[in-house]
Amino acid sequence: MSLGIELNAFYLRQGWQIRSLRADLAILDRSVEGFLATKVLLAAVGAVFGPFLFLALWEIGVRLAITVPVWLALLFAATFFFLPDLEIRSQAREKRRDFRRVLGAYLDLVAMNLAGGRGLPEALMTAAEISDGWALRRIRNTLTDARVTGISQWTGLSRLGDELDIDELKDLGAALALVAEDGAKVRESLAARAETMRHRELAEIEGSAGAKSQSMLIAQMLLCAGFMVFLMYPAVSRVMSTL
Question: What is the pTM (predicted TM-score) of this model?
Answer without folding.
Answer: 0.71
